[in-house]
Amino acid sequence: MGSSMATGNRLKPRAPFTRALFLTVFCLVLFIYTLRPSSIERPAQVQPQRNPMLNGSHVHMSDCTINKSQLEDLQDRYELGDEIEFARRYVRFHRQDIDRKPMTKIDMDLFPRGFDEIDIRNPPRRTTCLKPLEVPVPRSRTPNTVDASDLLFGISTTYSRLTDEEISPIKEWAHWLTDGNGKSNGAGLVLRLIDATVEELEETQAKMTDMGIDVKVYPTDSSIEMAKRYLSLLPALYNDTSRESRKFLVMCDDDTFYPSMHNLLDRLSQYDYRTDLYIGTLSEDVNNIQRHGSQAFGGAGVFFSIPLAEKVADKFDQCSTAEKIEEANTGWGPQGDILLRKCIHEHTETTLTLLRELHQLDIQGDPAGFYEGGLSPLSLHHFKGGMWHKARPYEGAQVIHACGEDCFLQRFQTADDFIISNGFSIAYYPKGIDFNIHQIEKTFTAAPDDYGWNLDFMLGPQRKNLLWTGRKVAWELMEAQVQKDGSVKQTYIRKTDDYRWTYGEGGNRMFEKDGVLELVWISS
Ligand SMILES: *[C@@H]1O[C@H](CO)[C@@H](O)[C@H](O)[C@H]1NC(C)=O
Ligand SMILES: *[C@@H]1O[C@H](CO)[C@@H](O)[C@H](O)[C@H]1NC(C)=O
Ligand SMILES: *[C@@H]1O[C@H](CO)[C@@H](O)[C@H](O)[C@H]1NC(C)=O
């Protein structure tokens, strides 16, 4: 039944306490613990749990078995040590007529029995078996009911990026272009592949069509100046035969991700698509706005109404002369976003309509503060590492297939000082949650110059980060699977050598072993 508290591993980071103090606290905790109503399943009840609300097809089992080969696979993928700390918790969500709160407090412990100490070479057959954690969630919709036929997207990229195992965006595109079951959600995609061969175009077309993506793949030519190529995508979208049935033409980067299409469409429906509209967002970094101008930063997604797209298409030649391209160079090479803004400003009365839930994410370093901020982003960008940050929003967003769009990045605070940022992390605060949860933790930096306040206008002033303080440790989501019964299993991992979880910068590690936490989201 896993390790009990007697092994002293109950959520205990290695702290420089004296043994006496430790024992006193330990005995106190043990005493209080015996008085609490237990959320632990008695061994006799370690059986499939039947929820009377469910009919036969949706019975969820609390599976407390440990599968050695699955642990070995995780060990391989994430270079885990042989001895790990492990815990699994089922989370039963209850859809209610409530708003999505910045923080949902749950009056239960997340891991009342701490973690099991497991040797992957010889694991126990079962893990500590707990009753599901019960959490309320708003009634939000799932991808299988999206009708996005109002939208036609345009992206330029290269065949080599599409086929790169590390950064290929195709499965992410399928998230926002299909119903999650291999069928188009109605949205179209015009994909331009730079310098691709006929075979590459055909292969891409076939592969993406197979995945249910309504795509038209075209070649484009690297000899055309990049900024001009970018601008020419809008007339190409405007020219598409499906235009008549669209309301918005959307340009974005190959690393733009739209987690929640219902929410995106709801927001867009607040605007009158028959008027001239240029909708997008600024960079979070005022430094970039000063450098490049007040315009839509394309990685967050830029939405054009058809009437405005028509005007840009008409003026394409005038807007893309050598002189205009030179004017779009702010010292970082000619920028497509600038060429587009100038074309709109110089030929129409339209300026940017700011949709702040879109995110360019010009941030570097540890992005946790953003993803743990309780936000409900309509787009995400720059999350593939390299010079920007690294995150896994595709894996994170899988949970919406079970509990609806609002669940992604929704926060739950449990009685034992954990905060689940659903689909990003499970963070534990050993000294309590004594900070302003409404502010974003400044774990990241602006680039290339961080004045300390560049990001404040868009993200709000951020609170001081808790790195190297011993006050925070987080397991981050690495994978997630929608399972046959409709539940979603998430795997969160904390490595012992993570540079962030130490006492003092470069100081002693808070934990001696790697940690794996699993959450399984089941419906009520
Ligand atoms: C069982 O539940 C599923 C999903 O809620 C529903 O589609 C199905 O009709 C239900 N079957 C019965 C027998 O109630
Ligand atoms: C354990 O997991 C593997 C996949 O890693 C799977 O093939 C196997 O069926 C699982 N075994 C049991 C008993 O569930
Ligand atoms: C759009 O169609 C017009 C008319 O058929 C054509 O002249 C123009 O080159 C096309 N533009 C693009 C970018 O495909």
TrEMBL record:
- Look up the domain of life of the source: Eukaryota
What range(s) does the Fringe-like glycosyltransferase domain occupy? Answer: 214-360
Provide the topology term for how it sits in the membrane: Single-pass membrane protein; Single-pass type II membrane protein
Q: Select a single GO molecular function from the record's annotations and give it.
A: glycosyltransferase activity
Gene Ontology cellular-component annotations: endomembrane system; membrane
Record has Transmembrane helix as a keyword: yes
Q: What is its main location?
A: membrane
Give the keywords, sorted. Glycosyltransferase, Membrane, Signal-anchor, Transferase, Transmembrane, Transmembrane helix
Q: Where does it live in the cell?
A: Endomembrane system; Membrane
Note the PANTHER family from the entry. FRINGE-RELATED (PTHR10811)
Q: What is this protein called?
A: Fringe-like glycosyltransferase domain-containing protein
State the organism of origin: Lachnellula suecica
